[in-house]
Amino acid sequence: MAGRVEKNYPLHQLTTWKIGGPAEAVYWPQTKEDLATVWQRAQKADVPVWLIGQGSNLLVPDSGLPGVTLVTTSLRAIEWGNYTVQVEAGYPLARLAQEAGERGFSGLAFARGIPGSVGGAVMMNAGAHGGAMAPHIAAVTALWPDGTVKKVGKAELEFAYRSCSLRGHAWVLEVELMFAPGDRETILQEMKENLTKRALNQPLEKPSAGSVFQNPPGDSAGRLIEAAGWKGRGVGGAQVSTKHSNFIVNTGNAKAIDVLTLIEKIQKSVELEFGVILQTEVAYLNDTQYTRSDARIKGEQSLENN
Questions:
Q1: Do residues 20 and 11 make contact, with C-beta atoms less than 8 angstroms apart?
Q2: Residues 225 and 246: beta-carbon distance below 8 Å
Q3: How far apart are CA 150 and CA 46, in angstroms?
Q4: Predicted pLDDT at 294
Q5: Is 303 a member of any domain?
Q6: Which of 21 and 304 is assigned the larger pLDDT?
Q7: What distance in Å separates the CA atoms of residue 57 and residue 116, rounded to the nearest whole number?
Q8: Where is the FAD-binding PCMH-type domain (predicted)?
Q9: Enclosing domain of residue 234
Q10: Does residue 297 carry a pLDDT above 90?
């Protein structure tokens, strides 16, 4: 099959957190069909399969991952229509937002600074600056656990805050998005302002996975974490950012266990002080998740959400 294959590949090279042990095997499929074929063959051979895109919003265990890790970054076919686009899962979301804006297509300005893939954006209903993916999704082509590839319309999907009903049940291969007509210069200016805000408010100078926790209804996770006294504190090489308390940064030698321990400490502290249980946005790929008898797809298409 076409595409790059690596054995014992260091997964920290594929994640924005720069954390993760070796993958038993990594494969970069060149087509949707190649990806589906590998999944089908792996299922028959009882081999675990994991799916990642740009590697943001993702924590990989220090022990690495068994089986095959599929990386979608080569799946970048794109076709623009009349205020629509059909695009494969591995296409960079920020690049798509910029290109939509250049065409005067309104709707993705919020996504200009999100360093993730289109597939992950759909799976997580990515959002920022008051915008989100769900309103712009017309249809999704996905790979299902039985190995079939099926296109579903938006009416067959359910979206919520940082959530899509496909998560854990299918892998996004391609998505059709729809836009509204807009003024090109206005859209480009909005994206420029969003990027400026991002640079001012987020710790872009250090490896992170974006916002770690979902914002609870009517409140801000960052505010709660800072009020609980966690700003700047850390465990091992993982530290709560001094710039944005809902970011955990890798100070240079962080391990997955450092991040997990810090997350647990923050959750317990915030619950004790404010009675709020913070839910994580980041996906943790734990090799104990995979069981052959479980029909749910365990890999995560993930990206940074803010």
A1: yes
A2: yes
A3: 23
A4: 32
A5: no
A6: 21
A7: 8
A8: 19-182
A9: 203-278
A10: no
Report if residue 69 sits inside a domain: yes
> Strand, helix or coil at 276?
coil
Residue 196 lies in a domain: no
- CATH code of 138's domain: 3.30.465.10
DSSP track, 242-273? SS-TTBEEE-SS--HHHHHHHHHHHHHHHHHH
CA dihedral sign, ordered 187, 190, 195, 196 = positive
Of 136, 153, 187, the residue that ends a domain is: 187
Q: Is the confidence at residue 293, as pLDDT, over 70?
A: no
Q: Which residues are catalytic?
A: 162, 211, 281
Q: Which two tokens stand for residue 42?
A: 């792996």
Q: Copy the structure tokens of residue 64.
A: 């690495």
Q: Are 84 and 138 spatial neighbours (Cβ–Cβ below 8 Å)?
A: yes
Tell me phi and psi for residue 124, to 5 degrees.
Answer: -100, 0
Is the pTM higher than 0.85? The answer reads yes
User: Of 8, 6, 117, 22, whose CA–CA distance to 60 is shortest?
Assistant: 22
In a domain? residue 31:
yes
Beta carbons of 216 and 182 less than 8 angstroms apart: no
Residues recorded for the chain: 306
| CATH number for the domain that contains residue 249 | 3.90.78.10
